[in-house]
Structures are given as structure tokens and as C-alpha cells.
Amino acid sequence: MKRKLLLIWLVAIGGLGMTIPQGMAQGTPEQMALAKEYLRQSDYAKAEALFSKLIEQDVQFGLVYPDYLKTLLALRNYKEAEKLVKRAQKKYPAVPAYVVDEGRVLQAGGNNAAAEKKWTQLVQTTTPENVYGVASAFQQADMLDYAEQVYLRARQLSGSEKNFAAQLLQLYAYQRKTDQLVEEVLRQVKSSAVPLTYAQNMLQNALRDDEALSMLEQRLMTAVQADPDATAVQELLIWTLLQRKDFGPALLQTRALDRRTQGGGSRVLSLADISLRNKDYATAIEGYTYVMQQYRTGELYPIARQRIIQAREEQVKNTFPIDKEKIRLLAQEYENLIQELGRNDRTAEVIKELGELQAFYLDAQEPAIKNLQEAIDMPRANPNIVAEAKLVLADVYLLRGEPWESTLLYSQVEKSHKEQPLGYEAKLRNARLSYYKGDFVLAQSHLDILKLATSREIANDALDLSLLIIDNTGLDTSAAALKEYAAIDFLVFQHKYPEALASLDKLLTKYPGHSLTDEIYFQKAELLHQMGQFPEAAQNLQLIIDNPKYDILSDDALFLLAKLNEENLNQPVKAQELFNQLLVKHPGSVFVAEARKRLRKLRGDKV
């Protein structure tokens, strides 16, 4: 408001052609505000007239100096600017910022050599005691290379390479000086001068592309080979491999580190878990096998024994067409493990996993319900395992056509695990149940909450389902097609794939050109893939890729088609082409990291 009134007053005075009588001059605050306003409007001459008077008041010097110097430089009045900075140095000889400013004035006047000499002299005056003031002066002037020289000079004088590590790491990370950052990280991690997590954060912020991460990996590999006992460097290498999703090489390094440090297997178990979550089943199985073989009498043995079965299960479930005989063997492995360890709270998760296999893959719902209920009722069982068993049991009831039992169990988990991932998962399943029934309003009410209040994975699933409902129940769209599509989704949930495929084909005929068409093609492709009909799956994916209208699912289709060519159609060259196409057309896709990893493997890149 004050500035607005000031502007009105200025306009009025200017319009009248009046000058301010000497006796009516404003006070210092008003003059300062007016000078700053002139500077903001780039009216440098008027600003200079006021600042030149204000600077004479010693009490105002520090406040006026920055804007006055900026004004003089804008007017190219380098002589007055040099006088100003020399005056500032005389008044405050211990403030290095004024020396930096003198160099800036010299540079602005075209005397680069003198400016650089002035800054170099300032760097030479650096000591471990004044280093932060000098470095800060250069940083405030955005002269980061000189700030780096200041810290390196102070480090040299201090006699310790550990000193000023955090400051140099921040400078290198901010400037994206990749080589210097990596060398500084290696130096400090070896000497334990900075925590490993701090170094990782610096690297993560600075190295954002695959080429930079590859360079880091190669440099760390060399460092580990040169000094195999440098534990922190090897841990940093493992972290880098995980950033690139190279789980196999990461496991090799982790096993070597575990053997050398007699680590007890916990690092290997953790890496196997990460591999399993990222669907690298072969690496997960290899990691669990190592723990079982090396630590047969340790406390990690039963955990690894259980998880290796889970990893094999996920591998079988995601290798199409699914081999029923392998599923039966997995169920038998679970039975053997339960027999070995007993039916107690330690095996509640195993009992739950067995029940899920029986219900969804072996068509044995009665024994499945019995096992799941046993896990739920198990005294002292982990509450999360109990909640997971309830979710699976609810799914089984849904298979049996008892949705009320399902929603009751989902709601129990929502309540017992409120604001937790399992609670959100239960709400998502309740939303899907409403969707299957065609109650899109109720489904949307659940999804609106999930989109805002949960983990990224569940939020993304909720968003996808929400968009499907919104796009196909709008003002210009009848919900009839979506109700039929939701019923087909329920057939897929029940693993009734042939029936679902036939219904999808009918839907294409019944609603030609509908907004659901791309979803139908993609659903068909996934079902055909799971049934082992790979060429037919590829054809449906190509329909999505070739039609610009289906852009939302284009990256999904490209990734799945590339995988089909790599894993099932024996077309590695075509797979490379498709992965490259994905990286170029969809650089922000969630599939980018996995596509790069698979591309490196197809090209035969050496680690």
C-alpha cells in the first residue's frame, strides 16, 4: 500500500513539473524507498542522485552500499564504483566481500587480468580460520570456482584431506562437476570423513542420467579392485548398481563383502529382498540360496528358506503360460516347510502363502479358506500377516460369489491398519469390489481418498482406476460399456481367461470406436501373453502403438511388446529397437529404468 501511494505521489509531482523545495525534503527512510523504487524501474540516474547522498551517512553505509554499487555499474560509472568499494574496504578491512566486489568492478570495466589478480590474491589470503567468510563472499557473487579454490587452499594449509569435505561435495554436486564429485566422494568415504548416506545423497542429486551413473560405476569398480578391503567403497558400488537396477552384479559384490566381513548374511538377504520386489527373481533366488547354504544354523536360515519359495512362486506366476505342475511343487514345498517348522506364529506367513496358492492356482478353495483362517486366528502372529491373510481370504470369498463377506474383511483391515499401506490396500480392494459390481460412484469415493493419502504404488493404481471410471462415465459417455468391461475385469480376477477374451471381442464389436478400445486391446494382449499366445498378444499391442489416439497406454504397450520380443518371440534386435523407442518417445515413463537395464543386457554391455 505504501509503495502504491509513493508511486501516485511521484506521478503527481512529475505531472505538475514541480521540484521538491529544500525544506520539504523527505526523511532518510523515504529517500531510501524512493531510490530503491527508481532502481527497480531502471531509472539509474535518479537512483544514483539519491544513493550518492545517502551513502554519506555512515550509519546507512551498509544498507545503501549494495544498491549503490549496482546502480553505478548499471551506469558504467566504474570510477565512482571503484572509489565506493575502496571506501568500503577501508571502513571494513576484514570483510572479504568488498575485495570480491573490487574485482567485479575491474572486470566490468574491461580489466579482466586485474580482476582475476585481485581474486587470486584474496584466495591466497585464505586460512583455516577465515575460510568460511572468504568462500561465502565468492559464493554470494556466484563465483563458485573461486569458492572451490578457497576450500582447497584451506585444506592444504590445514594438512588434512578430511577438512571441508561437506562444503566441497556441495559445490561439486551443485555445479554438476561429476569427475571432481566422484573423486571427492571416494576420498572422503575411504577416510570416513563423511557418512556414506551423505555421500549417496550428493551423488543422487548430481548424477541423474545413465551415462553419469555408468561412469561412477566404472570408477568405483576400479577403486574396489585396487583396494578390496575398502568396505565403504564397496558399499557405495553396491548402492550405485542398485540405482541402475543391476541386481545381479550388486549381488556378486554383496556376497564378496559378506564373506570378507563375516557379515552374517543380512546384507545378502536384504539385497535378495530388493531383487524380489523389483521382479528380478533369478537374483533373488541366488541370494536366498547363498544365505541358506552359508548360514544353515543361523537365525536367517528359516527366513531365507521361506523367501526362496516365495521368489520361485513369483517367478512361476510371471512365466507364461503358467506351469500348473510347478505350482503344485511350490505348494508341496510350503507344506514341507510347515511340517519342518510347525504350525505356529513363525509359520503364519507360510500358511497364508499356501492358502493363496490353493485358492487362485489350484482351485482348492476349501483347504485355502481353512489355512487362511488358521493364519488369522494364530496366537501371537504378526498383525501385518493377519491383515494380509484377511485380504486374501476376502478375495477368496469374492471368488465364491460372497461379496458381503469380502467387504467385511476389507473393512476390518482398513480399520486395524488405518493410514498404513495395508489399510490403503484394503480400501483399494473395496473400491475394486464396487467397480466390479458397477457401483462407480462408491468406487470413486474410495479412490478419491487413495489418490491423496497413500504410497505411490497404491496411489497410481487408484489413479488409473479413477481415470478409467471418469473417462467412461462422463456427460457424453454411457456407463453401459464400462459396466460390461468391469464384469470382464472380474472374470480376469477369477482367472477365467478364455471367457474374458471372448467377452472382450464382443465388446469391441458392440461398441466400435469407444473410448475403452485401447484398454480392451491392452487387456487382450495381457491375457494372450499369460496364455502363451505371444504373436497374437504382439498384434494387439501394435494396434495401440500405431494409433496416436491411444497415447496414454503407448508406453505400457511398447514396454510389454519389447519384453515379448526379448523373452518369448526370440527377436532381440526388434526388442532393442522397441526399448530405444520407449526411451526416446516416453522419457518420463515408469518403465525407463527397466528398459535401460534390458537394453544394456541385449547390447551385451560389460560390467
Notes on the structure:
Helix content is 75%, strand content 0%. It is built from 33 helices and no strands. Helix 2 runs antiparallel to helix 3 and helix 21 (365-377) packs antiparallel against helix 22. It is elongated.
Number of strands: 0
Overall pLDDT score: 92
Quaternary status of these chains?
single chain
Q: What portion of the residues fall into strands of 2 or more residues?
A: under 5%
Anisotropy-based shape = elongated
Kindly provide the radius of gyration, computed on alpha-carbon positions and rounded to a whole number of angstroms: 34 Å
Helix content: over 70%
**Terminal-residue CA separation:** 64 Å
Largest sheet: none
| Structural class determined from secondary elements | mainly alpha
Poorly predicted segments: 1-25
Task: Please write out the topology.
Elements: H1 2-16, H2 28-40, H3 44-54, H4 61-74, H5 78-91, H6 97-108, H7 112-124, H8 131-140, H9 144-158, H10 165-175, H11 178-191, H12 196-206, H13 210-226, H14 231-243, H15 247-261, H16 266-277, H17 281-294, H18 301-317, H19 324-341, H20 348-360, H21 365-377, H22 383-399, H23 403-416, H24 421-436, H25 440-450, H26 456-471, H27 480-493, H28 497-510, H29 517-530, H30 534-546, H31 554-567, H32 572-585, H33 592-603
Helix pairs in contact: 2-3, 3-4, 4-5, 5-6, 6-7, 7-9, 8-9, 9-10, 10-11, 10-12, 11-12, 13-14, 14-15, 15-16, 15-17, 16-17, 17-18, 18-19, 19-20, 20-21, 20-22, 21-22, 22-23, 22-24, 23-24, 24-25, 24-26, 25-26, 27-28, 28-29, 29-30, 30-31, 31-32, 32-33
